[in-house]
Structure to design on (752 residues):
């Protein structure tokens, strides 16, 4: 999608018909829009969102009213006016579309203002030059830019850091899934499991014998338990995330109390160290469990090994194992009646008797081989036993070390916490500390509960798997029942394949986004943190502490904003790849086609620390093919101007006309002064979009 | 590296599909098609349509 123009009529602050033309992709891909606070920057961002989806962003005030105040005030009873937003854009093929949402606003005879729900129309200029109005415009728009994705492309820069917050995982994961059309697979899977399988099982219960009916009834019950457990786990996990968010909020507040910042840093370090120890302890315990379950029997086999070795030795001593003598050799001596020393072997002589006895022993070749293998086995088992003890001892030693380190850290942490919460030092900090302890307790409880439920879920899923195998072997009563059973089996296999495909694709796109986020972050970051997206779709920052990567707690708003923008940049790249990698999607009804997308950002520099402003300004033009940046005069600093000037292809000022006295001001662009806030005689404010040429 | 990873995933997907019978593969693609075509609209008869497709493809 490449934006060509935005046309407004009597929309919010913008009276009459006004136009913004956008700079196309290329070296000068930036369209800069300057506006005073309240001049309509957020309204312009919302013009796109309202036109495409009939929605508004959460930060828009008086969100139901689209008509311009002055136009509405001048509307006479019984009269109406049309309010519209029109966006002209091209898609990945270069076809030009015009989307227009309009609403009719009327003044009733009793003076009330009535606004109809509004209607979207979409037309396309075909290559032949024909203009065609498309039916189902919302479907087309959703294919070009799904509703779930717009918050990543049209956003308020000051709020974008929320994407890096703990409560945004679902939004991030949802965006990723939509981007890759994984959602369709998930819906297919859900409908097959929730609806189709249930119906088939219900049908089959009528045609199965008693065992099958019983197994199907148990399966239904377990499936119910499975969904209930999953739901409960989700609730507890969300509670853990909320507690983390609360703890982080308190940490930041405490950190801002000057005399506490050092203690807070110390607590962070200790908590982070403790988390590392908990992970290592867990690894050690897992190692112990694995060693015990795999080789634990070796600890108890000493007497068996000794006895076996004794038996082998005795057998050799008794001469039961002549070992090296081959039966053929003895047979040959007996046949020739001559020993190897040339002495004759007479029939019935003691020599012959001795040889016959030897011959009987040599016949036990299999026995000999088994004993020989057992001897080798004993040696190998003894070596493994020794190794097992060494491993267990090393793990025990490491675990002891970790436990005592943990004890020390807990004591130290308790001291630090006591100092932070000491009422005599600071009352505010004390209150915050008690809130923090409460949040920590709640988190521990929710985590514990989630773990218990996960263990229960594991049991239920194990039983379900066993039951599925049982059902698989049971047969239906008649041909009709057998057909239903076949259908049930097939749907189960298809659902399971869909589930695996879904997970593969989700993790593939996550890995690829992770790679891109870390690259994009490197270009803009001031500190030597690394950025990533975790397996459960959390945007995270890490730093190296003592040779290992530790999560960054209490990242600044600017850092979170840059992290979120890195994710947006990665998403833009991925959307572009979609078309290149899956050209077959282009013609499939319902699929998100992907392609190149613009970024429309309201106030992207607003909440950034000065050190990040210049970096982000240098970096934003490279995030997407086409970028629209809206900022106030105070946000557009000299650093921003210097970094962006060369990349600006189109530039506008939102001239605010206001009845207020003493607020008039100009804005200086390229050495000339332009009206920025203008005193007006009207009682109401309005904005004129003026192009800087 | 990214392309290599993408090809690996595509190969694994092909392997998963190869474990299904021909009819099951057809069922899978039909289910996905039905869901795709109804992605942005509420379709109360979707469940009936999916069940009918199962009955049609797996006999």
């Amino acid at each position: 999608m490449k934006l060509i123009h935005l046309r407004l009529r009597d929309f919010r602050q913008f009276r009459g018909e006004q136009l913004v033309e956008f700079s196309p992709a290329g070296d000068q891909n930036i369209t800069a829009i300057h506006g005073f606070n309240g001049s309509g920057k957020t309204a312009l961002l919302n013009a796109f969102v309202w036109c495409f989806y009939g929605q508004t962003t959460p930060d828009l005030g008086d969100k139901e009213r689209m008509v311009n105040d002055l136009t509405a005030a001048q509307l006479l009873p019984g009269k109406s006016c049309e309010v519209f937003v029109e966006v002209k854009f091209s898609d990945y093929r270069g076809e030009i579309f015009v989307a227009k949402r309009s609403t009719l606003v009327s003044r009733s005879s009793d003076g009330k203002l009535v606004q109809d729900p509004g209607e979207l129309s979409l037309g396309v200029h075909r290559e032949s030059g024909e203009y065609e109005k498309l039916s189902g415009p919302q479907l087309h728009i959703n294919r070009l830019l799904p509703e779930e994705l717009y918050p990543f492309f049209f956003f308020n820069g000051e709020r974008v850091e929320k994407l890096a917050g703990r409560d945004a995982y679902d939004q991030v994961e949802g965006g990723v899934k939509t981007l890759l059309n994984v959602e369709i697979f998930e819906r297919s899977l859900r409908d097959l499991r929730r609806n189709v399988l249930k119906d088939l099982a219900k049908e089959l219960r009528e045609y199965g014998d008693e065992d099958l009916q019983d197994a199907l009834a148990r399966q239904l019950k377990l499936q119910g338990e499975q969904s209930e457990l999953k739901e409960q786990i989700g609730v507890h996990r969300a509670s853990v995330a909320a507690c983390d968010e609360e703890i982080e909020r308190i940490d930041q507040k405490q950190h801002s109390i000057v005399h506490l910042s050092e203690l807070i840093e110390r607590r962070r370090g200790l908590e982070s160290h403790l988390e590392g120890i908990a992970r290592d302890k867990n690894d050690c315990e897992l190692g112990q469990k694995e060693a015990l379950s795999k080789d634990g029997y070796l600890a108890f086999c000493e007497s068996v090994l000794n006895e076996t070795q004794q038996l082998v030795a005795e057998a050799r001593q008794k001469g039961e194992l002549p070992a090296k003598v081959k039966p053929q050799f003895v047979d040959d001596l007996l046949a020739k009646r001559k020993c190897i020393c040339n002495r004759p072997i007479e029939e019935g002589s003691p020599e012959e008797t001795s040889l016959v006895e030897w011959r009987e022993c040599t016949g036990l070749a299999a026995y000999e081989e088994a004993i020989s293998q057992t001897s080798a086995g004993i040696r190998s088992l003894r070596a493994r036993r020794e190794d097992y003890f060494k491993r267990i001892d090393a793990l025990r030693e490491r675990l002891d070390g970790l436990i005592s380190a943990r004890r020390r850290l807990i004591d130290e942490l308790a001291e630090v916490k006591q100092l932070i919460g000491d009422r005599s030092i600071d009352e505010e900090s004390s209150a915050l500390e008690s809130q923090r302890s409460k949040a920590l307790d709640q988190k521990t409880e929710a985590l514990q509960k989630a773990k218990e439920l996960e263990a229960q879920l594991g049991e239920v899923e194990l039983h379900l798997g066993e039951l599925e195998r049982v059902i698989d072997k049971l047969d239906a009563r008649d041909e009709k029942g057998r057909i239903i059973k076949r259908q049930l089996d097939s749907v189960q296999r298809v659902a399971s394949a869909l589930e695996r495909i879904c997970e593969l694709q989700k993790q593939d796109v996550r890995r690829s986004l992770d790679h891109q986020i870390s690259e994009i972050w490197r270009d803009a970051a001031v500190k030597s943190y690394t950025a990533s997206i975790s397996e459960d779709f959390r945007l995270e920052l890490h730093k190296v502490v003592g040779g290992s990567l530790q999560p960054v707690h209490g990242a600044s708003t600017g850092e979170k904003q840059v992290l979120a923008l890195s994710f947006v940049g990665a998403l833009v790249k991925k959307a572009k790849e979609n078309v290149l990698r899956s050209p077959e999607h282009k013609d499939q009804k319902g699929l998100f086609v992907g392609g190149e997308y613009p970024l429309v950002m309201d106030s992207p520099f607003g909440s950034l620390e000065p050190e990040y402003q210049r970096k982000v300004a240098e970096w934003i033009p490279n995030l997407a093919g086409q970028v629209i940046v809206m900022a106030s005069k105070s946000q557009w600093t000299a650093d921003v101007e210097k970094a962006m000037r060369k990349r600006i292809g189109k530039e506008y000022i939102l001239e605010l006309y206001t009845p207020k006295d003493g607020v008039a001001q100009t804005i200086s662009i390229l050495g000339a002064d332009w009206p920025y806030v203008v005193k007006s005689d009207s009682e109401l404010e309005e904005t004129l979009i003026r192009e800087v040429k | 590296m990214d392309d290599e990873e993408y090809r690996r995933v595509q190969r694994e997907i092909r392997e998963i599909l190869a474990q299904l019978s021909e009819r099951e593969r057809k069922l899978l693609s039909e289910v996905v098609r039905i869901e795709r075509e109804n992605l942005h609209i509420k379709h109360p008869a979707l469940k009936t349509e999916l069940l009918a497709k199962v009955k049609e493809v797996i006999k």
Notes: The helical segments of chain B are 2-18, 22-37, 46-57. The interface with chain A takes residues 1-2, 5-6, 9, 12-13, 16-17, 19-21, 23-24, 27-28, 31-32, 35-41, 46-47, 50-51, 54-55, 58-59 of chain B (CB under 8 Å).
